């Protein structure tokens, strides 16, 4: 079991935090994010999840978390050819 820290951000300010949340694995993080997102009534907030080491593993807007609330990460085995930071979105001019 790993410990994760959940933070709600408004801009760069942490407005709420749940330290030391025990979860089985990273797949168990998403349902917790969705539950937290449903409790937030402020526009423009984000949810950040950190591992025990302090590294950020997820940073997601509340609106996006709500949009993908029912996404089943259990069916995801891998994303071929993609690794963290290996892709980018083109900028519109």
SSE blueprint:
Layout (H helix, E strand, L loop, with lengths): L1 E9 L2 E11 L5 H10 L6 E6 L5 E6 H6 L26
Antiparallel strand pairs: 1-2, 1-3, 3-4
Structure description:
This protein is of the alpha+beta class. The chain has one domain (2-72). Helix content is 17%, strand content 34%. The chain has helices spanning 29-38, 62-67, and strands at residues 2-10, 13-23, 45-50, 56-61. The chain has a 4-stranded antiparallel sheet. The longest helix is centred in the middle third of the chain and has 10 residues, at 29-38. It starts with a strand and ends in a 26-residue tail after the last helix. The model is unreliable at 79-93 (pLDDT under 50).
Structural features:
17% helix; globular; 93 residues; alpha+beta; disordered C terminus
Quote the distance from N terminus to C terminus: 46 Å
Number of helices: 2
Summing up helix and strand content along with how strands pair, one would put the structural category as alpha+beta
**Sheet of most strands:** 4 strands, antiparallel
| Number of self-contained structural domains | 1
The parts where pLDDT drops under 50 for at least 5 residues are 79-93
Please state the overall shape, judged from the principal axes of the Cα atoms: globular
Strand coverage percent:
25-35%
Q: How many beta-strand elements?
A: 4
Mean pLDDT: 82
Helix content: 10-25%
**Rg:** 14 Å
Strand order of the largest sheet: 2-1-3-4
């Amino acid at each position: 079991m790993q410990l994760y820290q959940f933070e709600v951000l408004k801009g760069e300010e942490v407005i709420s935090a749940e330290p030391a949340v025990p979860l089985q694995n990273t797949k168990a993080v998403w349902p917790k994010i969705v539950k937290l997102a449903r409790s937030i009534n402020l526009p423009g907030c984000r949810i950040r999840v950190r591992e025990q080491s302090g590294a950020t593993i997820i940073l997601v807007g509340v609106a996006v978390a709500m949009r993908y609330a029912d996404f089943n990460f259990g069916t995801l085995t891998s994303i071929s050819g993609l690794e963290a930071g290996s892709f980018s979105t083109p900028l519109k001019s």
